[in-house]
Specification:
The protein has 480 residues and is an all-alpha fold. Helices cover 67% and strands 2% of the residues. The protein has one domain (2-476). It starts with a helix and ends with a helix. 36% of the residues are buried.
Length: 480
């Protein structure tokens, strides 16, 4: 259990790597974005956007008998055009606008597309999982790759699928095929293994760029946020109970208010309630982004693990710093690190409804809507007071009761991560936490914050002190 807690700590402390003055970075990015491809204000040629959109449209074919065929390979083929489009803010925005449109204006056709996307997604996950299971890969590699592939199962499709949703499912399923094709090779020490790892990294980064370019979820969550101050504040949290935690944490809310509002704007709200389809698409995008981040990061990890004679995690941090940035080509930024952590939160939160908390079940969307309605003044900057709600208080109370009861905690973790025995449950939890920690580690290194990871203590005495502070105190209060 200590390993589990330490893995979670690594993820939490990944936030510490991005304590730079993000407001300056955000302003610079905004200024550069306005310039587009030139300094003369000349409109970009959008012909490539038109052609790419036409390719996506052609991926859905309505036949004379009324049946619909969705060709994922055709939709995924647009990845070859994405790099050129992504290099121009004008083209990127134009493509996002086109991709936000539904695949069909006909509700009957949309329903058929949704069904096919769900079916094809399930088929790819099953095929990839079976191929990985029967591969000659080491058990640890199999577990990690199957965990990555399982993310695809958690990509929901809205009732009225957009072109972006079609492309997202298409490119993620292609990534799953790359994972299954390279499962047996990725952990070796020869040239074929090195090529397989590089192929996985390249495919993951191509997938990531495509998802970001066609969807509206590539949001800058760091603009105006002083994460250094935020994390320093979190370090001061004590063990005095939930009220103390809320009181101390919420005074830093103004720093993250902008990021929360960007997420809400992306999802869309009506009468202070989340747009249902908008939320579904946001969760789908987060799950897809997570798949791409974890795939690429695992490719990097395997490369570095072999280069560092089996060392990984904290004891191999020097190897990560030496090799990680070169291998990932510096394509990840500090915002990618934050976006990844957000993707983990939203994709995992969807599983909450499967869990029995002290005899009760909760729907995350309903919780968010209730809290959102009660705290619009807080999000609008008109107030700094967080208002809890009856349902949120009940959830926190039931969560605490579940954490304090070994049997209830094990049952909850089994529903969340799978497993019929305590050993299976713990292994599944550890596999997931290890993958998240590894991904955060790679993103931190590639975005230039790897050296900060050395702040995490590794010897017993220092680790004990660390666990007795702030976040450590909160985590170690969990009994199992």
């Amino acid at each position: 259990m200590k390993k589990l807690l330490f893995g979670i700590l690594v993820v939490c402390l990944a936030l510490c790597m991005v304590g730079c003055d993000a407001s300056i970075i955000g302003k610079l990015a905004e200024t550069m974005g306005k310039l587009g491809n030139n300094i003369y204000g000349i409109e970009a040629n959008l012909e490539s956007v038109t052609e790419t959109t036409a390719s996506v449209d052609a991926a859905v074919e309505t036949k004379t008998d009324g049946s619909v065929e969705v060709k994922l390979d055709a939709a995924a083929a647009i990845t070859g055009d994405i790099a050129e489009i992504a290099s121009s803010p004008q083209k990127t925005e134009a493509l996002k606008t086109e991709m936000s449109k539904p695949v069909s204006e006909n509700p009957e056709t949309s329903a058929k597309v949704k069904t096919q996307l769900e079916e094809k997604k399930a088929e790819v996950v099953t095929a990839a999982t079976d191929a990985i299971d029967t591969s000659s890969a080491p058990a640890e590699v199999k577990a990690a790759l199957k965990t990555v592939v399982s993310n695809i199962s958690n990509i929901p499709v809205s009732e009225n699928p957009t072109k972006a949703e079609l492309v997202t499912v298409a490119v993620v399923t292609e990534l799953a095929k790359t994972l299954q094709d390279n499962a047996s090779k990725i952990a070796g020490n020869d040239a074929e293994a090195a090529a397989a790892r590089l192929a996985l990294i390249a495919k993951a980064q191509e997938t990531l760029m495509t998802i970001k370019t066609v969807n509206k979820t590539d949001i800058n969550l760091l603009q105006g946020v002083d994460l250094g101050s935020l994390i320093n504040g979190l370090k001061g949290l004590s063990k005095d109970g939930a009220k103390t935690f809320n009181d101390q944490f919420l005074k830093y809310l103004s720093m993250i208010r902008g990021g929360v509002n960007k997420i809400l704007s992306t999802i869309g709200t009506t009468d202070n309630q989340l747009n249902s389809d908008g939320y579904t698409r946001f969760v789908a995008n987060m799950s897809a982004l997570r798949t791409a981040y974890e795939s690429g990061a695992y490719g990097v990890r395997q490369y570095v693990v072999n280069a560092a004679a089996g060392k990984c995690g904290l004891e191999g941090i020097d190897a990560f710093i030496a090799n990680g940035k070169t291998l990932a080509n510096g394509k990840y930024t500090s915002n990618d690190l934050i976006l990844y952590l957000v993707s983990v939160v939203f994709s995992e939160a969807e599983k909450v409804s499967k869990i029995n908390f002290n005899g009760n079940q909760y729907n995350v969307r309903e919780l968010i809507n209730e809290v959102l309605k009660a705290n619009m003044d807080l999000l609008n900057g008109a107030s700094d007071d967080f208002k809890s709600t009856e349902k949120l208080d009940a959830f926190v109370s039931d969560l605490q009761a579940t954490l304090e009861d070994k049997a209830k905690l094990q049952a909850g973790l089994a529903a969340w991560f799978g497993g019929s025995t305590q050993e299976e449950v713990i292994k599944n939890v550890m596999d997931r936490v290890a993958l998240v920690a590894n991904t955060a580690l790679v993103l931190a290194v590639d975005s230039g914050y790897g050296s900060a990871l050395k702040m995490i203590p590794t010897n017993g005495a220092e680790l004990e002190v660390f666990l007795n502070t702030s976040i450590g105190s909160l985590l170690t209060s969990i009994k199992m």
